[in-house]
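Annotated sample (chain length 420).
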Amino acid sequence: MVADLSSCRVIIHASQIVCVSRCKERWKSGTELRQIDLIPNGAVVVSDGLIHWVGRSSDLPPMPPDAEVLDARGKVVLPGFIDSHTHLVFAGSREEEFEQRLQGKRYEEIAAGGGGINATVQQVRRASKEELKTATRQRLHRLLSFGVTTVEIKSGYGLTLADELKCLEVIAELNQEGPWELVATFLGAHAVPLEFQGNREGYIRLLVDEMLPEVSRGRMAEFCDVFCERGAFTLEESERILKRACELGMKVKVHADEFSSSGGAELAARWRAISADHLLCITDAGIEALMRSGTVATLLPGTAFFLALNYAPTRRLIEAGLPVALASDCNPGTCPSENLPLIGSLACTQMKMLPTEVVTALTLNAAAALDRSERLGSIEAGKQADLIVCNVPDYRQLFYHFGVSHVWRVIKRGRVVYAA
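Output written by the structure step:
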């Protein structure tokens, strides 16, 4: 009998258990990205919200008579997917910009004409906290239906102290509500709001002197992010904001090299950012800097797809030995989709990642991009029991048969929280 098993749940006869076990680092990189430890006819024992045992069903130790058994015959079990880059707290939509891009307008042109981020900012400022919670909750339920158990959510559509705090409160309250696990990131440096268009310095002072200290004081966000990009924040402005965040004890992330080679990757490396995200236009110097920094390279192929841009140079990043994660970038302007497995399909077909690499990038490495890979992202004894059971016999079908959800059950902290 396995000792001290309370509220025991046993998953048995899975066609495959996809373990994605850890290696010596908190992530996998290079050829290790392909190593996912498949167990055929597998079983997982879960108790008290943790994984207690994993192995072949034929080797399953005796279980308590009241153990709840989940027969996963013909199905695949994976770690819960982790979406490490989203902008889920928003109001309204921007389908008119979608049509404008189809007619040839570039993202930067649309933003300069009053669209883009600032169009959503106006709608978020008008929305109540309850309206934002309702809309965000719906998006979280869609993510859950695609097997996503942990979600990073950025603020950044308020751009006043009151509205940024309103968005961060939405994240905190939905995290308490569950069943998902949410990670808050402060992105006041998303854009310069319209009322500061003639006074950039005034807005940066507001960020550095008022917004960041208040967010830090209230522990409203674990991370601070900055959109270091042409038309957003310069390298020097971004560095100033990140420096203040670090002084306040916050961890940092960077929107880096999305539309231009802005030096964002090098900036992320200098400040030992947990992740540098986008990287469509990363340079050789940026790659070299990230190699020495321990920063996770988070790639967002859904955005490149939706904006018809060139994709990040993924094979170069992997061959350089960088830890690569994948995320949705779900937002109203450049990637309005909660379908994270579809992001995996795009990574395979457009960025030439193998399905094994994609699984690692959506689980263990995505956990590392949130500084949580010690607890999340793989199926190992002692880790949190965040699991998905998918109605396919081979994990590769998740990305091969694309555009639909194959998820049959979602387990968060050992409890079934979604059933198809």
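Annotation: The mean pLDDT is 95.
Annotation: The first strand starts at residue 9 and ends at 18.
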